[in-house]
Every structure is written in C-alpha cells, then in structure tokens.
From TrEMBL:
Its EC number is 6.1.1.20. Tetramer of two alpha and two beta subunits. The gene is pheS. It comes from Methanosphaerula palustris (strain ATCC BAA-1556 / DSM 19958 / E1-9c). PANTHER family: PHENYLALANINE--TRNA LIGASE ALPHA SUBUNIT, PHENYLALANYL-TRNA SYNTHETASE. Its cofactor is Mg(2+). HAMAP family: Phe_tRNA_synth_alpha2. This is Phenylalanine--tRNA ligase alpha subunit.
Amino acid sequence: MEKEPSADKRGPTGVTQNEKRLLAVLAGHLDRTAESVAEEMQTATDAVIQWAHLAEENGFATMTRTVTHTYVLNEEGEVYARAGLPERQLLNSFEGSIEMATLKQHPLSKIGIGWMRKKGWVTIRDGLISRNGDAPEGIDELALKGPLTEGEGLNALIRRGLIVDHESAVTTMRLTPAGEALVNEGLDLREETGQITHEHLLTGEWEHLNLRRYRIDRLPRRAVPGKIHPYQRLINEMRQILLEMGFTEISGELVQSAFWNFDALFQPQDHPAREMQDTFYLAEETDLPEGYERVKAMHEHGGDTTSSGWGGVWSGKKAEQCVLRTHTTGLSIQYLATHPEPPVRAFCISRVYRREAIDPTHTPEFEQLEGVVMDKEVTFSHLLGFLKEFYLKMGFADVRFRPAYFPYTEPSVEPEVYVDGLGWVEIGGAGIFRQEVTDPWGVKTPVLAWGLGVSRVAMLKLGLKDLRMLYRSDIDWIRDAPILPADTQSSTRR
Ligand SMILES: N[C@@H](Cc1ccccc1)C(=O)O
C-alpha cells in the first residue's frame, strides 16, 4: 500500500476523506460560511458542519457560530409606532387633571394608567389623576421610532411583548496553521474504499485501493437501546427460578378485605399491624366469604381444634373493611382455601402497601415474593432447604435463619443473607402455617409459607443505597444498569 503523506502528523487515527475534501475547499480562504462550503462541495450544510467538527477535533480547522438577531415590531408594536404607546395616548387625552372614573372610559386605560404611574407622569389622589409635568419622551418611545437596534429601549419593548426576535445563526470555518500545513503537503483525495470485496481480492486490486482507516482509539457513540427495567429484569429472573422449581404463579387484587389480609391469617383484631398508622384503609367494605364463621370461631375459641383462640368477640365489621394489601400472604391462604388438597406449590411476586415514612430503605409500596408449599410430610427442614436453595440461585451464597414470630406460622424464621460490606441482612419471613390458619379451610397437610422482600433483594443485587431508585425511572441509572442474564449472574446456579 502507498504510504499516506504525513500520516504521522495526522495522529494515529487518520483523517477521513470528507475531512480532507473540506480542508481542500477551505484552503486559501480566511473565513468561509458553512453554506458556501456546502454549495461548493454540493452537499448539505449539516454534513459540512459535521466534517468541520472532526477537523476541529483534529486541530486542522476552527469553527465559529455567530448568532444574529433581527428585531421587528409585532402587530401591536406597529400600532403603537404609529399612534404612540398607550400611556402617551392616554396622557394626551386630557389636560391638567381628570376623574379616574372618566379616564377609565378610554379604551387604552387598562394598559395606560399603570404605565403613566410607573413612569411618574401622573399622581393619583382621591380618585383624581393629575399630570406631573411635561412627561419627556422615554427610551422606549425613542426605540419605537426605529431603527430597532440593541439597547435599553429595545429591551423595554421586548419586555412589553411588542417585538418579534428573528434569530439566525451563521457558521464560519477556517483552517488552522496545522490544517494549512497539511493541505500544503498535499492531500490524498483519491476515493476511499470502506470495504474490501471478494472481487478486490481476486483481481489484486486491493493493493491499489485507498483504504479507509478505522479509528480504533475512539469509542463509538454510546448506544442506548430500549431495555427491560433492571428491577423488572430481576423480578423476571425470580419468577423463572420458581417456575423452573415447579411452582404455579398466582395473583390477586391489590385491594383486599381485612378478612383475607389479617383475620384468615389468625392475626388478632387488636394486632398493632392492623392499626391505621400501619395500614392503608379504604372507605369500602366487602362481604365476608363463605366459611367466615369458621375463622370467627377460630379467633374466639379455637374452633374444633385444640387451640384456645384469641378469646373475646370477633367482629365481622372489622373484617369487612377494605385495605390495600399489606402483604401477599393473604393471597396464599385464599389460594389454599380453594385448593385444600396436596400437593400445592404456588407463588406470586406482587406489590404490597404499608404506611411507612419514606426514607432510603422504606417506601410505602414495595414488592414481595410470596410462596407456599403444601405436601404430605413436608417439614421445617424442607422450608429452610428451599429458602437456601432459592437464595443460592439468586446469587446469595451465605444464608442463615433467625427465630421469629408471625401470628400465622409456627415455627417462624427470618432468613438473612450475607452481603459484603453490609453484613447479615434480613430479607423476609417464613414458617409453617398454624393449624388456626389452615383448619378453617379443610387443609390437613403441612404448609410451608414465606414472604420475601423483593425490593430489598433488588437493592442488594443492584448495589443501590436508596430503595426509591427502583421506582424513580432515573433514565441515567436505567441506562447504566448492566444487563446481566441470569446465567452469568451467579456461579451457584444449577
Ligand atoms: N407476611 C410476612 C412474611 C411471611 C410470609 C409467610 C410466612 C411467614 C412470614 C411479611 O410480610 O413480613
């Protein structure tokens, strides 16, 4: 291949063909407008500006953009230019003093009176307007006479909305000394070939081609294609794991009765979590489902079981109240009520609502991953094993369990995962449903149940310091968040 002239001076990246053509056109001129260059090169002005940008980056040319304004009176301005500003016309309409009420009859009084006062032309006292003196012509009135050149007078007219500002930009460009030197050394203006073809190789023509150089030291412009929100991506991944483990996905309404959200889970009616400050109550009420009497009996005295219940009188009114679901455990028990025979493996990943003060780690709405496994002979060990397995698949290798309490499970645990830099982080609740929960619906087989904070997991997996980021649609964050397919995220995935 021919050695390109002065390749050393062009830097390692070379100069594009279009840039060279542009430099040749600029040679011998001082400043040229983009338009005239475009005309000579028989191309679009935008293209010329783009090539000039490249040349500028390489130090061969400079560009200057000059914005010029042309000011013209608008329709209203034209009228005032002929007849005078409203305040002048108004002032000329009377001598000495005039009753305010009379002057208000004047069609221009609305605009004019204020301006006359502002300019100190008149004094208003006891409903009477009096001239102060001879009211000399102001800079705005001078400007109105034209020509409209920049200055305080014009600014005053612009502020009063009497002017149209026509803006036009002219881009000029010229060679730098380096650009001139490059042109003087001679530019290789032969056509460039961007792609070598089979033909070129066969005929040996490739040896004589002027091949376009790649700028391998430059990053290409960043591509920001559409993609799934990082949080949704994580939720999809969790869903996939559970589906692969043989679970059925269930769903339910955001609005639930207190009955399903609390009572069916043997949560006593005076439980603090049911208080207004923790739960969003709605004005609506709903009918109690068939079989609610058995839940009532369970609360009051333990129904037909050995449990003694909570005692007292269970109020149907309280149970009829509608709430924004505070957890998804209410969906699990509803599902079991209609599917009381084993085996059942069900899950849902859904939004729940709690009256939390908003801060970096609390939002009043967040997602939970809820699940149940009902089968003959499933035990507490299976529950721990399952949770461990799930977290492993999510990429948390260290999982441990702390004893916990929920009104609906016994025994109960809170799983924790170990996160570098944070230590052990609590990430949900789990346990075996109590007899008080399952018995009213004829469920006789053990039920493993859990509810995990999905947004918590997301925070840890996405390295967020602020939970709110998940809900904020911060476009920069969304663009920057890496796309990690499930398979590459965790080496423990089996
Ligand atoms: N509902 C509990 C989690 C949980 C679900 C199922 C069983 C035990 C605990 C919570 O919201 O924190």
